[in-house]
Amino acid sequence: MELITERLRLRPWRESDREPFARLNADAEVMRYFPAPLTPAESDALIARARQRTAEAGLCFQPIEEKRSGRFLGFVGLNRPAYPVPLPFDPCVEIGWRLSRAAWGKGYASEAARAWLRFGFETLGLEEIVSFTFTGNDRSRKVMERLGMTRDPAEDFLHPMLAADHPLASHVLYRLSRAAWRGGAFSHVAER
């Protein structure tokens, strides 16, 4: 499956994505709100898991590229989290993103996420899509808010895959219902 927006192509993983994805995951600033940057082998394993989850569940994070240049920018997409320890709001479908620093500040995450929200609500018929991140990740939180997602501080949580005293354990949860999405100016994006 491929989604097209004004500037972006959201597409399946390719072998040629391995090297730029490994560079992205090795960047300490990109990975600032994750426990550690990834090695090339860990990055390759993440692609393999994304492909497998797409084959099994029909969705997972997918690459985005700039339409004009074909440049790999990172990934955006829908995912059904499957941690060994469940999230407090499981089961759910999340929307998430990870972009290279060169792609920051250009609105790519919001543009791609809007296409995925439309797909999730209109094609998959989802009732709700969530997003979550480390409390201090202001960039991602601003994207969530631009998408029309809302946060209830009572739903903030400690990520179950991190020790409670880990500096990145504190997370915020944002939600968007299909009804709220339909009522907002967020549902009108091109898709193919």
UniProtKB/TrEMBL annotation:
Transferase keyword on record: yes
Keyword Coiled coil appears in the UniProt entry: no
Pfam families: Acetyltransf_3
Organism domain of life: Bacteria
Signal peptide: none
MF term (GO), any: acyltransferase activity, transferring groups other than amino-acyl groups
Keywords linked to the UniProt accession: Transferase
Ranges of residues in domain N-acetyltransferase: 8-179
Name of this chain's protein: GNAT family N-acetyltransferase
Protein source organism: Stappia taiwanensis
Upper lineage: Bacteria, Pseudomonadati, Pseudomonadota, Alphaproteobacteria, Hyphomicrobiales
